[in-house]
Amino acid sequence: MYILGIETSCDETAASVIKADPKSGRLLVLSNIISSQIEIHKKYGGVVPEVAAREHVLNIVPVVQEALETAKIKAKQLDLLAVTKGPGLITSLITGVETVRSLAFAWEKPIMEINHIEGHIYANFINSSNQIKFPAIILTVSGGHTTLLNMDKNKKIKILGETRDDAAGEAYDKGAKMLGLGYPGGPIISQYVAEYQKTLISKAKKPNEPLNFPRPMLNSDNLDFSFSGLKTSLLYQLKKDPTWKKRIPEYCYEFQQAIIDILISKTLKAAKKYGAKTVMLSGGVSANTELRKQMASTVKKNLKNVNFCVPAKEYTTDNAAMIAAAAFFKLKSKKPSSFSQLRVDSSLQLK
Ligand code: KG4
Ligand code: ZN
Fold first, then answer.
1. Looking at ligand 1, which atom is closest to the CA of residue 316?
2. Does any ligand 1 atom lie closer than 6 A to the CB of residue 172?
3. Is the CB of residue 186 below 6 angstroms from any atom belonging to ligand 1?
4. For residue 147, what are the β-bridge partners?
5. Gyration radius of the chain's alpha carbons
6. Residues 140 and 117 reside in one and the same domain
7. Ligand 1: does its nearest atom lie under 6 Å from the Cβ of 86?
8. Is the CB of 10 under 6 A from ligand 1?
9. pTM
10. Which ligand 1 atom is the nearest neighbour of the CA of 317?
11. pLDDT tens for residues 132-159?
12. Do residues 298 and 325 share a domain?
C-alpha cells in the first residue's frame, strides 16, 4: 500500500510517500520532502507563528507535488492520507490538516490522524522495526517535549515521565541564544562540541577554571526532568566570566554534557524499572551525535540483551515519513476517518 504523509506542526512543511507491506510490516520511504523555514526564523531567534503559518500556505502544494513526483506515484494509487493533527502551533497545523481534508475529499481517500509525538516514535520503525522488542522504553526529545514512554507489545504507549519546565531542545535553543550562537541551538552547539573535542585530543588542553553545570533531578526517585536550572546556571556563569567569549566551545561542551547526563540517567532508570527489551530515542535532539553515541554505549554496558534503536538522522527532526509510518502501524488498532471528521488539536496529548 501507498501512504502520503503530511506534517506542518511547527516550521517545517513536509510531505512523504511510503510504500508499505501489511504482511511483512516492511516499509520503504519513496520520498521525504522537507521545506525548512529555519533561514527565515533565524533572524528572530526562534519560530514566529504567524510567519510560519504564511510560509506553510505557500509551500504545502509544491511540497506535496514534489513528494508524489519523486516517489513516481499518482494520487489515484494512494491508499491512505496521514497528517499531524497535534500537538503543535495551531496556525501551522491548520495548513496540513486543511490540505489533507481537501485532498481526501477530492481524491476520495481515508485519513489517519497522527499525534506528532507518536510520529517521532515511529521514525524508529522506518529502518529498525524488526529490532524493536517489547516492552520498549522511548525517550522523545524535541524542541517542545522531553518525555519517557513505555510501549507494550500491542504498541500501547504510556507516559512514564516528562519535563517539568523546559524541553531538552528548548534548553539547547535557549543556551545557544545566551551564547549568541543563533537558532536552532542544537546543531550549532553540537558543532562547537565537536570542535572542542578535537582541541582536547590534539592539545590535551584542560580549562583553567572548570565550568560547573548542575544536573537537576538526576537523583530524584521519579522519571521526570527539569532543565530550567541548567539554563539559569549558564546565565550566572556567563555573568561571572569576563572571558566567556573566548571559551564558547568549552561552554557548549559542558552544557551539552549536563543535558546528556540527565537524559541518559533517567532513560537507564526507566529501562531497568520496566524491564525494557529495547531502548529507543526519538525527536529532533536525537540527531545529536554525542547523545546517540553515549546512550548506545550506556545501554550496551548496563543492560543485558537490550536493543538500542535510533532513527536515521533524516527522520529525527520534523519530517512526514515518520507520520506516514505511524499511520501504517496504527492501521492495526485504529480505523481511518473521513475528511469530515478531521480537526486540528493543538493541545493533543498522548493517552
Ligand atoms: O523534533 P523537532 O524537529 O521539532 C519539535 O517537534 O520540536 O526538534 C527540534 C529541536 C530543536 O530544539 C533543535 O535545537 C533540536 O531539536 N536539535 C538538536 C540537534 N538537531 C536539532 N539538538 C541537539 N543536537 C542536534 N544535532
Ligand atoms: Zn517534532
1. 1
2. yes
3. yes
4. 140, 162
5. 21
6. no
7. no
8. yes
9. 0.95
10. 3
11. 999 999 999 999 999 999 999 999 999 9
12. no
